[in-house]
Amino acid sequence: MSWRKKADPDKPYVKKNFANWLAQVAMLLLPKFFYVIAGRGSGKTTDLQAERLIEMVYDMPGAPVVWVSDTYTNLYKNVLPTLLEALEKKGFIEGIHYEIGKAPKEYTEAQKANLDPKIRKYFWKPFNKLASYKNTLIFFTGLNVRFGSLDKPASLAGSSYVHVFGDEVKYFKEAKIANLLKAVRGYRDTYGHSVFYRGHTFTTDMPNTANIGEYDWILKQGSRMRKIGLMLILKAAFIMNEIMGELLAAKDAKNTEEVIKKKRSYERWAERWTQARLSEDGSTFFYIASSYVNVDVLSPEWFDDAIATDLGDLNTAVLSMRAGLESGDRFYSNLA
User: Fold this and answer.
1) Count of Cβ atoms closer than 10 Å to residue 184 Cβ
2) Can you tell me the distance from the alpha carbon of 215 to that of 208, in angstroms, rounded to the nearest whole number?
3) CATH number, domain 41-204
4) Domains of the chain: which residue ranges?
5) What's the CA gap between 130 and 126, in Å, rounded?
6) pTM of the model
7) Do the beta carbons of residue 287 and residue 37 sit within 8 Å?
8) What are phi and psi of 256, to 5 degrees?
9) Which residues, in sequence order, are bridge partners of residue 99?
10) How remote is the C-alpha of 83 from its chain's centroid?
11) Would you place residue 330 in the very low, low, confident or very high pLDDT band (cuts 50, 70, 90)?
12) In Å, how far are 21, 22, 46, 155 from 18, measured between CA atoms?
């Protein structure tokens, strides 16, 4: 096996972050449609959702996306604080990288002159027209996230979005979310090149339809996944990762010729990776994982305590096992 040079992990430009293996796979794949059922504490919002959102910040500058919840109360009390905490840990600072609920500061063309051309056009300026910044998260690249509630359909009516996010989707009625997905449309000339265009990012813990207000429509999405296409994406991503390490090592060694060579290799494989993600076979990722996927953060003792409490939702909320009717429930339903 040939020896590959790697970047020095102790260099100041190398930032070390922990991510569980499922989050790492998700970041390598970055497909159009993303459906994950995972137990509590598995990093669904902090890693899976936040990383995909950050990728879109750079991939679709100026684009309108929507983040939907069952109620505004759940969104602002449970989902949004976790998302903002995740963004902060990943280096995003309010007032510098994003604003929430208010219009950003305006900049002159002269002030934007030195910015990357890809960002300059939409720097703090969304492609779509916003009458109000209420219930809106806007990033410095212009990507704007509209927060909506399924119990108030008027909050999302009449708009077009290029991607939809949803956490704890087991609380979404199938008919309501299906109606919202019709609004994931438009702006094809500007954003149709992106893998994420008209895509979905949905996460939840395992639905238990025996509980009032829980729905299992996300389980239907598993039949859309094609493993062979996803494996091609992963193989290309692994090669890109190795080339990036070699590129950084060449820069450290100040080897100009090697840097040029590795840049070309990286661009070539990045194009192959993107094409694999754009293919129909690589467009959908569906996975079911227990909370144990994040055991390094939660600790084994957390699972001991969860088992010791003997709560009724251990199998579904932690172990992600599909719920089944208890024998007593089956008896009475048959009697009826």
Assistant:
1) 17
2) 7
3) 3.40.50.300
4) 41-204, 228-281
5) 8
6) 0.92
7) yes
8) -60, -45
9) 138
10) 11
11) very low
12) 10, 12, 12, 37
